[in-house]
């Protein structure tokens, strides 16, 4: 995780984020000056940003909306005050509606970004200047420190070539906080086919099986928001185990990039929120699954079942059975 410090200074009315990045200044500048790359890390996990307007000139504006997993929206706007590529830039940042009109009831702030070369790559310093102590306190209370730290945790994947970042590393599980987990796996294959493999029953039954010796006995998918789904498995032959399944509801479908579903084991009351994101680069697709658990105990209990090992077996089968064809 690249963030090394977040400092709030009530006396000087500032919040400063310091991050050490394993990439040269020019590459970091590219990530911050290209809206398509910014979208991959500006919003925290589960709240990806979409930049709907981008005028990268002094006096120009950039508008963005972050989309939450349950359909929530939070929008903002930048006015570029200074641009000094690749060394940094300065903006006036404000909460806004989806059209970019600032919200006068919420604080705005001046933000500076500086990119300085280091022996390992680049040190990024982002300082936000507030008009009052109340404005600083309000933004901090809204989760700015935690949100910024989590958002920046996505930057490593943006700055590196996708294969350099994830190829050969299998299924990786990262604990983001007590209730949120990020699972990533790079697969060799186009995003459209990976999306179909997650959403078409005849394809799902070929790979989404976990350990060998299991078959999918039921597969009803949700094709529209609000619809329910059911997936069930059973052991075959001498395989030990009891049949089980999951059910839930589709909350968001943005093919072929993102889907969000609730998930419950059939017969159990515990519900998780599963946020699936697919990103393709040079013929490979990074699968990112954010899972929200009701509490830390549930998180630890489910992870201890060997879930990640079963997912790795399934992803390897996905590459072998479908993507290599």
UniProtKB/TrEMBL annotation:
Residues 23-159, 190-321 form the Activator of Hsp90 ATPase homologue 1/2-like C-terminal domain. CDD domains: SRPBCC_CalC_Aha1-like. Pfam families: AHSA1 (PF08327). Belongs to the AHA1 family. This is SRPBCC domain-containing protein. It comes from Microbacterium galbinum.
